[in-house]
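User: I'm writing a tutorial on reading structure tokens. Could you give me a worked example: one chain, its sequence, then its tokens, then a sentence or two explaining what the tokens reveal?
Assistant: Sure. Here is the example chain.
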Amino acid sequence: MGMAAACGLPLAHFSGRAQAQAAARLYDLPRFGNVHFLHFTDCHAQLLPLRFREPNVNLGVAGMSGRPPHLVGEALLRHFGIKAGTAEAHAFTFLDFEPAARTYGKVGGFAHLATLVKQLKADRPGALLLDGGDTWQGSATALWTQGQDMVDACKLLGVDVMTGHWEFTLGAARVKQIVDRDFKGRIDFLAQNIKTADFGDAVFPPYVIKNMNGVPVAIVGQAFPYTPIANPRYMIPDWSFGIQEETLQKTVDEARAKGAQAVILLSHNGMDVDLKLATRVRGIDAILGGHTHDGVPAPTIVSNAGGKTLVTNAGSNGKFLGVLDFEVKSGKLADFRYKLLPVFANLLPADPEMEALIRKARAPYAEKLGEKLALTEGLLYRRGSFNGTFDQLILEGLMAEKDTPIAFSPGFRWGTSMLPGEPILMEHLLDQTAITYPYTTVTEMTGETVKIILEDVGYNLFNPDPYYQQGGDMVRVGGLRYTCDPNGKSGARISGMSIKGKPLEAAKIYKVAGWAPVSAEAKARGGEPIWDLMARYLRSRKLIKPLQLELPRLKGMQGNDGLA
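And here are its predicted structure tokens:
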């Protein structure tokens, strides 16, 4: 039964018997073929069930406009034939988020994911579980244990193969320690595009070939190519990254020459990059992608010189599990089936063993995690091309605590959502801020410098060539109004900047608050961690009223299906 049919229950009826029926229909996924992959990505260390609002702004420009993943709301529903007001519509869009979240409950959670993985593996002999990365970062406990809670959970979950991105912000030594100690003989950590900076030697294996039901299958790893730019270079000083098309082609050819009859690229490029890559590298049957947090219900089929490649992206925060079934005949792919399954915590019982591991991992930190900082009267979320309400809260906290007229906050895509009336706990704050370079800053900038920064981020985010997109959403800006033309030329996307109705003066000096600087100099200077600043701000306010988003005025975006 198709997912739309499985989830086609109206909001008011998703309970009791209907709940049990929906679970059976949604997760009773018949086996197809002889080669099977399960895929999750970008869980950002979220071990417990959560809420995560999908974006209402996910702009695509140039050839990326109007196609997955740059579809939101009703445009996404139309494209994939999903019925409005269903569980599936809630999982994949922001529509009716608050009432839908209260009706369907939380999503994800490793104990519930474990139950689903076991169920699907039981019906799919030899199925491999692939982890697309951004797994060891994003929560308080992952930060405080240097990722060990997630490493232990992934081992128990049965992960077979992994690549990475935010993992590298734990530092090269810690990553190597985990790979060489915890993963040895159990999980293959792959990255064909990570080399030593001096001699270009492989840091990790580029691929692995496994035999599944008599079929040799290759999985190639592709780590986030812009890690040393998007994150501090000093954390991985001796490694080079990049897309490395030519090396990837040689790797795929080598795997095929060694007998691989199916080739999977486990990628953390982001979907736009993967779509371009699929046109230029032959011999890849499917790209199981991540990084951009796009939950895409069906693959995009891309033609290239060697045939066709399926390109997918499996969302974030443990919300989804991708299921890819291949029928391989006579040494090549003959047919496939793909489902991106939402992980509804109230439809999947918690796996007892995983639940016990999670409880043990969290126990030493329970009191600190549970501190009530404030109460929110409005919906708090992060994801979106320009801003989210939790980002707005951080901007207001920075400006208040640092006494500045302007604040910048990174365009991070991770961070859980909260419903009105819920207490903001220390855990929720750390869900938004738990990084290894959390320093807050105050910098004196000219108006011209402020514009240059916004132009630089716009060049990254809205570049018509996806290979020049280095990840993340637009920097969040507090106190400053501006106009953005995503289709504009380099250096001319940002205009009309003003503070409190007065034009920003190019030569005037302004104090700008921020956090998460990537330079070694900023690390040396230190600076109060963002969670300490925000905890103090929240404790002093006690009640957070609904926030008004500070958003840019947009030019040229009329009719864009990434804007709702």
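What the tokens reveal: The chain has 19 helices and 25 strands. The CA atoms of residues 485 and 493 lie 5 Å apart.
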